[in-house]
Design a protein that fits this description.
The complex is a heterodimer of chains A (294) and B (134). With 294 residues, chain A is mostly beta strands. Chain A has a single domain, classed as Beta Barrel (Porin). The radius of gyration of chain B is 17 Å and the shape is globular. The chains are: A mainly beta (294), B mainly alpha (134). The interface between A and B is medium-sized, with 35 and 33 residues.
């Protein structure tokens, strides 16, 4: 009972912090974010802009305790072709504990200038986490069994990982189609390289903007779908004992530039967590370090 | 010795940055525009609604670099120059917005989608050439 109260309290604390953080920033910006939670598109952060984001996932694994994984992200556009991002991760598990699970630092580089029919982006991330439940990517044999390990034990399993992604993205008649190929290696315990994928498709509900400012008009919404999962590891490539997820996704950009997204996602096999609910909130600050930017 | 090589590196980076910015602001990008893109026509033309919508998009995404009235800032060029208003075709501007000029700090705006890109162009072309910006 006490742990359940702690779980609820942590949800409230996260909500209050996010609200305060967003109220602190008054610089207007209207980010046009894709509604993806796991998939990366080819879009880079605009140079000089800082995106403050929180991505959250709530799940209830079979035979385990309900959990909420959260991360706070700072995404900065260093140049038009280079975006860097820093994450702080945490999770709360019902009847267990609320813990800080580590940090991650990623860099995305777009090697080819200009727009092509398919646009590659190279992604590299360093992770230092343990007992992570943010599920921002699914690789190898990640799945429901991982969520059954109590926090006290899971924290002992350090994950010092490097993650590489090839992101491919295309814009076709207002649709965005993105494909990610993921490989990850934990250097802490000699695990083999693990593989995964994520696919996303999305489109604004209306492509042309309205002449008048509006709040709930179709152009402020982007909708789509995501499919992602593990592909085994270097010792056994394939979908055997991997988890796979699919779900619709939608986001809405408020007039003050805040973007709110959500997505119900469904496990496609018995190895997956049956249901995940993801939600996000983000805010973009324009030209935050402009004095240092050329 | 190390300090000298670091200074050289810094100078080279600075020079490349300056060249890249100058390449965009002097219109060198126009030479890269393929003929089929140059000839594209703005489907929104001079439509008042498109200009108003373009102004909103401009203020959301472009004004922080190019200035609230597109008059330029210390670091980014004015869009009220003869080059933008008269020499470049609408197709040229569309190509620049879709592809960006990433070396010069101009990102690709393809994520806006064609209709919004054309609306921004309709707004930008509705502005007057500033004498000082010629």
């Amino acid at each position: 009972m006490a742990a359940r109260v702690s779980f609820l309290r942590s949800l409230i604390v996260i909500g209050v912090w996010l609200g305060l953080a967003l109220l602190c920033f008054s610089v207007r910006s209207a980010a046009q974010e894709r509604p993806y939670f796991v998939t990366y598109s080819q879009d880079m952060e605009e140079p000089g802009n800082l995106d403050i984001e929180s991505f959250n996932v709530v799940g209830n694994p079979k035979g385990g305790d309900a959990f909420m994984g959260s991360d706070a992200e700072l995404e900065y556009g260093v140049t038009a072709w280079w975006t860097t991002e820093f994450y702080l991760d945490g999770q709360a598990t019902s009847d267990q504990s609320t813990i800080f699970t580590g940090f991650r630092w990623e860099n995305r580089v777009r090697p080819w200038m200009g727009e092509h029919w398919i646009n590659p982006v190279l992604y590299a991330e360093l992770e230092d986490t343990s007992a992570d439940k943010t599920l921002r990517e699914v690789v190898g044999h990640d799945g429901n069994p991982d969520m059954l390990v109590p926090n006290g034990l899971a924290r002992l399993d350090k994950e010092r990982e490097i993650e590489l992604k090839l992101i491919l993205g295309s814009n076709v008649r207002g649709w965005n189609i993105s494909e990610n190929f993921i490989t990850e290696k934990n250097f802490q315990n000699g695990d083999p390289w693990e593989f995964g994928y994520a696919l996303g498709v999305s489109r604004p509900l209306k492509l042309a903007a309205s002449a008048q400012e509006c709040i709930f008009c179709a152009e402020k919404f982007q909708a789509g779908a995501e499919l992602y999962g593990g592909l085994g590891d270097a010792k056994g490539f394939g979908t055997s004992f991997t988890s796979q997820y699919f779900g619709p996704t939608i986001n809405w950009t408020a007039p003050n530039g805040m973007t709110i997204g959500m997505s119900p996602q469904f496990g496609l096999n018995s190895y997956s967590i049956p249901f995940l609910f993801r939600f996000s909130i983000s805010y973009e600050i324009e030209q935050v370090f402009s004095r240092f930017h050329r | 010795m190390i300090r000298t090589s670091k200074s050289r590196l810094a100078f080279t980076l600075l020079l490349f940055s300056a060249l890249a910015v100058s390449a965009t602001s002097n219109g060198a990008w126009m030479n890269k525009v393929p003929e089929r893109d140059r000839d594209k026509q703005n489907p929104y033309g001079d439509q008042a609604d498109a200009i108003a919508a373009g102004q909103r998009i401009f203020h959301d995404h472009c004004a922080h670099c190019h200035g609230a009235d597109a008059e330029g800032t210390k670091k980014r060029p004015s869009l009220r120059t003869e080059r933008v208003q008269q020499q470049a075709t609408e197709g040229d501007l569309h190509w620049l917005l879709v592809n960006g000029s990433m070396g010069a700090g101009m990102p690709s705006w393809s994520k806006l989608g064609d209709p919004q890109i054309w609306q921004v162009i309709a707004y930008v072309r509705s502005l007057k050439v500033e004498q000082a910006a010629k």
